[in-house]
Amino acid sequence: MQNVNAPREPAPVLSTSSTILNMREKEKYIEEFDFPFCDESSKYEKVAKIGQGTFGEVFKARARNSSKKFVAMKKVLMDNEKEGFPITALREIKILQLLKHENVVNLIEICRTKATLHNKYRSTFYLVFDFCEHDLAGLLSNVNVKFSLGEIKKVMQQLLNGLYYIHSNKILHRDMKAANVLITKNGILKLADFGLARAFSVAKSGQANKYTNRVVTLWYRPPELLLGDRNYGPPVDMWGAGCIMAEMWTRSPIMQGPTEQQQLILISQLCGSCTPDVWPGVESLDLYNKMELPKGQKRKVKERLKPYVKDPYGCDLLDKLLQLDPAKRYDADTALNHDFFWTDPMPCDLANMLAQHTQSMFEYLAPPRRPGHLRHHHHVPGAQAKPNPPPQDSGYQDRVF
Amino acid sequence: MPYWYYDKKDLLNTPSFRDGISNDTENRYRKEGARFIIDTGSKMDLGYNTVATGVVYFHRFYMFHSFRTFPRYITACCCLFLAGKVEETPKKCKDIIKVAKSLLTEQKFSTFGDDPKEEVMTLERILLQTIKFDLQVEHPYGYLLKYAKCLKGEKSKLQKIVQMAWTFVNDSLCTTLCLQWEPEVIAVALMFLAGKLSKFEVVDWNGRTPKHNAWWDMFVEDICMELLEDICHQVLDLYSPQTQPSAADSPPPQLVAQPTIRPVLKNDKKPSVTPPTSTSPVAVAKPVVTPIKNGSDVKPEPPKMDMRFTYPGYPPTMPPYPPMYSAPPPSIPPPRLPLPPGPPLAIYSEPPPARFPPVNVPPPNYYPPMPTRAPLPTRGPIPPGPPPPRSYYPPV
């Protein structure tokens, strides 16, 4: 089946296989078989490339049978796979088939291209999702998009609701970041990109889990992963939720370390040094003694975020999410019960605000956000100063549709 | 049709049958393919879950394609290859092929073509499309353990029954039962069979209510005796000497008289399965089972039949049990299985909580209920400012 261009001969006739199809018959069969459960991707028409997922490109596409129905198609990259259909894609599919929730991206179906001589009788596969107009990174990089406090609360409430749901179903996302948080034009938030997600279990006594700690985009990676923990759990996503929450005000990722070491330093500068005092058990993590860790740093979460966040409840919740010790970090349920969500202004719908923006905003299509980290406290601008001058908004809207 | 269960008449009119392969021959092919997956998987130390998942893929695949188009042993390899990845116990394709080659005659292995690995890769895509990417499959094993926990009786005897039922479940993979009944139903039937053969009558069980006539009423509604016996027969037929020895090569002689498929149940309606209370939702990673090695002495003894059906000779024709695979679990409740070492995103040892219907039969648009949230926690320190009264919970 490989050498499709070579002159093809019928498969060797075996004494016992006279009834088995020869190769050419089989190719024809594969080409013509109408898989009842797996539609052809040609039922959608690609409109634009909107992103690059963990294992392939993402396109916006329109259903041919309905010009109003848009989807996102994520191509399953298989070209360099020695072991067939990637196990990461299989995981993502299994997890997405399990998770059905308003705040989790919805997998509609999996489509294929037709197998032909041209592709050596190997289909390409696409995961087809409901289309979401924006991602949070794209929205935050556009200065014209302004979130009120109530709207920020709504974003965070939906995000935590999604996390609460997936964690209740024993799934870790493991790639929380603003670009993986989608928002529809109606203001519904969806957690997306489960390409790194996995199921987790609560570790039994004496039976620690051994997960890879090489997950989560560096800037959103929690200290336990950076210190080599392999028995982690939902708190890794909660750290990401904290980073994203802060970003709702700072408009750019708060800790943009270029290396793992640097990331830990940035974390210590914000959250204080990782010591057994504030984090019992940290000393037993693999890299605790192998890495040079900043000593004597004081915790300054509220102090440094206050100029941006202002709302004291917001500051308090951030403080609870950006806890060094994963055991002390708020879980999604506790966070949802925080006063931040139950005080005026109450969370309010995003639809009206988003209605002013008729163009999609995706990180992939936006110019790189200014690498303006959360500045160190003596650099933090005064209350009235605008944090992080926004990127130019020319240049990217034209590239959107 | 996202439903993976078939009536008997559908099982007679398969793509292979329409392609000129007799039902008996097809059943033999299925049995050989399944047995081959079991043998290959056992030899590679794959757990029962992975093996069973591979076999279910295999049976589903041939509800859409003919054995003439896709020779069984390479399909079997492909199913095991995919199941390994899905169950988080991946094996390299070339290693599977190597083991397959060692288990097959040269002639049978020749159906793998000139480049077996490439053949498997191409076939994998066809397999995935055929099975609708329904990757997560449930098996009867977990139900056996669940049921056993509730039954009252002498512990050692109960253990023996579970072990016997476990072996029956292993062997049931060689039948098309997984295309006919949900794993809960198969587990009930084969537990029932093991009880019968051990002369163990279950008279009481935990959770019994006056409405229950038999212990399984607690778990599955409307299971009638005819259905149970039909399922048991299908497994016991495997041990019947009339069945063709699997050594015969393909295609087989077409004239072997075979016991015909039993008449369709009077009550052809499938029992409605109660929402399984311990169904694991897409349990993304299943525990890798350390093969159980203490089961060799508990192979079911040739029983004296006291059930209504006739029972042809048992052990002589029984396929040997691969010790790594078919040995029953060592104890009830299931042991906490050790997690495999090493990185590639290993395994977790406990299925997620039950909140979902079996994943292979999702009702359309079924949204699993949100777990109920715990009541408000005690509050941490609150930032300055008195919290305004909390008037209502906004809609979430």
TrEMBL record, chain A:
Region annotated Disordered, chain positions: 367-401
Signal peptide (from-to): none
Family (UniProt): Belongs to the protein kinase superfamily. CMGC Ser/Thr protein kinase family. CDC2/CDKX subfamily.
PROSITE patterns per the UniProt record, alphabetical: PROTEIN_KINASE_ATP (PS00107), PROTEIN_KINASE_DOM (PS50011), PROTEIN_KINASE_ST (PS00108)
Gene Ontology CC terms, in alphabetical order: nucleus
Ranges of biased composition (kind: Basic residues): 370-380
All residue ranges annotated as the Protein kinase domain in the record: 44-341
Protein's UniProt name: Protein kinase domain-containing protein
GO molecular function, one term: ATP binding
Transmembrane parts of this sequence: none
Alphabetized UniProt keyword annotations: ATP-binding, Kinase, Nucleotide-binding, Nucleus, Serine/threonine-protein kinase, Transcription, Transcription regulation, Transferase
Subcellular locations according to the entry: Nucleus
CDD domains: STKc_CDK9
Domain of life: Eukaryota
Originating species: Pieris macdunnoughi
A matching Pfam family: Pkinase
Amino acids binding ATP: K74
TrEMBL record, chain B:
Family per similarity comment: Belongs to the cyclin family.
Name of the protein this chain belongs to: Cyclin-K
GO cellular component, one term: nucleus
GO MF terms held by the record: cyclin-dependent protein serine/threonine kinase regulator activity
Parts of the chain that traverse the membrane: none
Pfam families reported for this sequence: Cyclin_N, CycT2-like_C
Function: Regulatory subunit of cyclin-dependent kinases that mediates activation of target kinases. Plays a role in transcriptional regulation via its role in regulating the phosphorylation of the C-terminal domain (CTD) of the large subunit of RNA polymerase II (POLR2A).
Sorted UniProt keywords: Cell cycle, Cell division, Cyclin, Mitosis, Nucleus, Transcription, Transcription regulation
Region (Disordered): 335-396
Residue ranges of domain Cyclin-like in the record: 35-129, 142-240
A single BP term in Gene Ontology: regulation of transcription by RNA polymerase II
Compartment annotation: Nucleus
Principal place of residence: nucleus
